[in-house]
Amino acid sequence: MKIAVIGGGGREHAVIKKLKKNPRVTKIYALPGNGGIAQDAECVAIKATDVEAAVRFAVEKQIDFVVVTPDDPLAMGMVDRLKEKGIPAFGPSAKAAEIESSKVFAKQLMKKYHIPTAGYEVFEEPDEAIDYIKAQNQYPVVIKADGLALGKGVVIAENEKMAAEALQSIMNDKIFGDSGNKVIVEEFLQGPEVSVLSFTDGTTLVPMVTSMDHKRAYDGDVGPNTGGMGTVAPNPYFTPEIAKRCMDEIFMPTVAAMNAEGRKFKGCLYFGLMLTQNGPKVIEYNCRFGDPETQVVLPLLESDLLDIFEAVEQERLAQAEVRFMDKAACCVVLASGGYPKNYRTGLPVEGLKNAEAKEGVSVYHAGTKKADGRLVTAGGRVLGVTAVAGTLEEAVANAYEAAGEIHFEQMHFRKDIGRRALTKRGI
User: Fold this and answer.
1) For residue 135, is it left (φ>0), alpha (ψ between -120 and 50) or beta?
2) Which of 27, 75, 370, 393 could form a disulfide with 35 if both were Cys (CB 3.0 to 4.6 A apart)?
């Protein structure tokens, strides 16, 4: 089989490394891929958002199966276009992807179908939003851009000044473009956060091993929100009792709600959950694999990933084997100094071979490229160093040991990935 994977980050690298293990796979193309992905797939200089060029490529190369991983091309209807050409693909239709591409749609869906989430109001005018926030006078308050914003469209405002600044930058300065035409002002939920990626074919839903993301830029969960500075799996806060509640109150009701709206969801449905004192609640949905959650979840998958992708696309997930190993994983993201704000690129990366030589360690490339035969930095998040081990304590220690082998100028990473999870386990 010839496979094409759309995207060029750490998540895509994790997907590609897993797909390579299937003996039926003879060729993998990455559109556009990156410097590190080039070791595992043939990179093609087509942007993930260039839907027509990607579809044309898939037709010309007679691609047997396409995996569309990023949110933008899913929202733009790449899976629909591939289907029109008779090419099977993993990922939701544009109508189903709206569960992520419009936070307003997602919130209204939850309200209509009684899926537990934070209280909220929607605003199209910044003045009305700030008046509402002042009247509520409850801080912190959460402000979300309606549309896609690279995982950075959420501001937790600690006071009125921060709220006003957030509304100014999102709605007036348009830092996220048209994604900020509407905002959601939402109550601040408290409790442990859990990321649950799941496979679904629109009827059956199979959760993957849970994970814990670390969104803030600096140790102790301070600093600006990022796309994610690291993850661990499994998440110790997600007990069997909570898992059952989520399946009954959130997961299956969401699948049913999307079907009732004529938006059957097939692909990877991501649930960002908050385990509050009043039970689990949905913070957000994503219509695809999370990044960097994928980098800890897929290394723990024992079953074949392509087999699962095909089962989802053919709507026979109930018959497929989806099994995860009883181990733990930790991913530490190595970022450019200054990320998520201004940072330099083009800096040489050293020490990858030593890191990858360690047992149970994989290095996923998020923002690298080849320049004059050398691998250099090419993004904010540069690498994800993942270790799989028998215990979470070992996985964390091994990931940091491997990360210590890698060097590039102004390299920045958090030193406390997994600490909350280990504290929960009494370690």
Assistant:
1) alpha
2) 370
